[in-house]
Amino acid sequence: MFFALLALMFGPATPLNVWFELLSGKRNWLDFLSDNSSVLKLRLVHVILSITTGMALSAAGRAMQQLMQNPLADPHVVGLSAGSTSAVLLTIVLFPAYSATLLWDVFPALWISAALGSFIALILVQVVFQRVVRRWGVASLALVGLLLNASFSAFLMLIFARLSPDSLAEVQAWTLGSIQPHGLFQVVLIAPVLLLGALAFVVLDKELKLMSFGVEFASSHGVNVRRLRQKSLVILMLVSAAAVCAAGSVGFIGLLIPHLTRRLFFRSAWLWARPWLNVLLGGGFLLIADLCSRTLTSPLELPVGVYTALFSAPFLMAVLLRKERVA
């Protein structure tokens, strides 16, 4: 709550001295709110989207690490985010007029592209999953995701080669991660998808936790492994598409936050709280990163993905270098 209020108060359009004048009574609050209503609405959009996107990505990252039995997995590993981003950028390049329109005056047309791209990536994952993972094990899904990501990255390079300097900034906002400037009505449509995706993974956390000990162990404890995988991948598709629509291709959240949660709350008495704490930390982490992106380099606004990578890299390096393993 504290960081959410900070995100609403501070930004390049409202210098710090203005808030001192408001708090000291030198400036009228009503006049300030009426004069800056559009700025405050834009900041409210940033707050809502950053919190819900961080919650969804952190929950998806924890689910992927349990499902794949791989502590270095996150939603980007399976290629869903890359497929969604590729579809969005392809629409921007080939159909610029369509990408800037609102379908039925309700939601941006790019959301359709993001969902289709994530769905196509899901089909590719399922096809390879049936042929490769059954033979080499669940851990090989990480390699499948790396191959898909490499393919989508090569496709993105082809798109970059056809871009004009004017459209390059817009494309970079999608690829590096940036809270998209939607209106409040569009936020009301996309935020519930992110929240429901996070809640679904929290509900499935008990079964996913059993999966982290192996397929045989989960099956012996009554888990329908095939059904759990299918449900998890479908939820991942929806979360990935919604996250790309809300904040572009933001990385490291699904990788960092589950590790941080496990190390902060490692005692058995706190095991029940881990999925909820994981979700809350994810929302707060992306909110802080978005606040930094709008204030630290003002008036220049760096993509939020730059700060998530900057904050995550030292901790993840420490995790890789540690010999101890926290259960």
Describe the protein in words.
The structure is a single chain. It contains 16 helices and two strands. It has a single domain (2-321), classed as ABC transporter involved in vitamin B12 uptake, BtuC. The model has no long low-confidence stretch (mean pLDDT 77). A two-stranded antiparallel ribbon has the order 1-2. The protein has 327 residues and is an all-alpha fold. Helix 4 (37-67) packs across helix 14 and helix 10 (184-203) packs antiparallel against helix 13 (225-247). Helix content is 74%, strand content 1%. Strand 1 (102-103) and strand 2 (107-108) form a beta hairpin.
Key terms:
ABC transporter involved in vitamin B12 uptake, BtuC, 16 helices, globular, 327 residues, mainly alpha, two-stranded antiparallel ribbon
CATH C-level category: Mainly Alpha
The helix/strand class is mainly alpha
- Quick check: average pLDDT? 77
Q: How many helices?
A: 16
Low-confidence regions: none
CATH architecture: Orthogonal Bundle
Looking at CATH, the homologous superfamily is ABC transporter involved in vitamin B12 uptake, BtuC
Considering DSSP H and I runs of 4 or more, what fraction of the residues is helical? over 70%
And the CATH topology?
ABC transporter involved in vitamin B12 uptake, BtuC
Beta-strand segment tally: 2
Q: Could you tell me how far the N terminus lies from the C terminus, measured between alpha carbons in angstroms? A: 30 Å
Q: What's the story with the biggest beta sheet?
A: 2 strands, antiparallel
Series of secondary-structure elements, N-terminal to C-terminal: HHHHHHEEHHHHHHHHHH
- What portion of the residues fall into strands of 2 or more residues? under 5%
Radius of gyration (Å): 21 Å
